[in-house]
Amino acid sequence: MDRRRILIVVAAVVAALGTALVFFYVQGADKRAEDKYDAVQVLTAVKQINVGETVAQAQAAGKIEVGNVSKGSLLPGALTSLQGIETQIAQTNIYPGEQIIAGKFGTNAASTNALTIPKGDIAVSINLTDTARVAGFVNPGDKVAIFLTSPSATKLLLNNIEVIAVGTTTVVSTTTTDSTGAQTTEQLPRTLFTLGVTQAQAQKILYASSGGSGGGELAFGLLNDDSIVKPNNGASAGNLFDGQ
């Protein structure tokens, strides 16, 4: 076999090997992508479902449809069927694009004329934006930590506070001014939350929410049984990048 023929055979083998490697790489990439982004069906809101609206009413109004999300985006408690919860009532507003979660519905209306206030406590209410209310995941019976962000720092204000009712959501206009003087106006939903607290806690919440001590914004941190929240010096410009 002459040299030219040997070179042709070697080139053919190398080409075949390269084609095989590319094929197996593409197959592996497709499999990895499929594992990560494999779509699953879930019920989602296509129109706003209002607090106090029953599942049956929302379904009849065409507000709930089956959609697809990646497995990694599927929320705990997300529903694929409404069977068995048709008469349950939305405990908070559910906005278009949100997955339908069992925990956002209950057998009783979210807001009634009679509040169940923990013994020895009083009820106070505050308005929070969607971001400050943990994107709508806070429901009656949940425990929250309350943080206050003022011009100087963000600190824990109160811990382990019980939410006893979630009221209506309204849209308000908020105007902010940047360093150049340019103003931006946003339409932000704000939801009314009622908390069961002691007198001292109520005084702190009302003072902070009224803009006392230089003004500030309140925000919830949703707690579970394993949450660890302790008072500290808070976060400020002076220590923002210190430690963890």
Structure report:
This protein has 244 residues and is α+β, with helices and mostly antiparallel strands. The protein is 21% helix and 32% strand. It has 2 domains: 39-106, Alpha-Beta Complex (Type Iii Antifreeze Protein Isoform Hplc 12), CATH 3.90.1210; 122-236, no CATH class. The protein has helices spanning 3-37, 55-60, 199-209; strands at 39-45, 64-70, 89-90, 105-106, 122-129, 143-149, 154-177, 183-197, 217-222. The strands form 3 sheets. It has a 5-stranded antiparallel β-sheet with strand order 5-8-7-6-9, with helices on one face. It has a two-stranded antiparallel sheet with strand order 1-2. It has a two-stranded antiparallel ribbon with strand order 3-4. Strand 7 and strand 8 form a beta hairpin. The radius of gyration is 27 Å and the shape is extended. Residues 40-106 form the SAF domain. This is Flp pilus assembly protein CpaB.
Brief overview, please?
Residues 40-106 form the SAF domain. This protein is of the alpha+beta class and 244 residues long.
Radius of gyration: 27 Å
Overall number of strands:
9
Number of domains: 2
Tell me the major beta sheet.
5 strands, antiparallel
Please write the string of helix (H) and strand (E) elements: HEHEEEEEEEHE
Descriptors:
244 residues; Type Iii Antifreeze Protein Isoform Hplc 12; 21% helix; two-stranded antiparallel sheet; single chain; five-stranded antiparallel sheet; alpha+beta
List the helices and strands and how they pair.
Layout: H1 3-37, E1 39-45, H2 55-60, E2 64-70, E3 89-90, E4 105-106, E5 122-129, E6 143-149, E7 154-177, E8 183-197, H3 199-209, E9 217-222
Antiparallel strand pairs: 1-2, 3-4, 5-8, 6-7, 6-9, 7-8
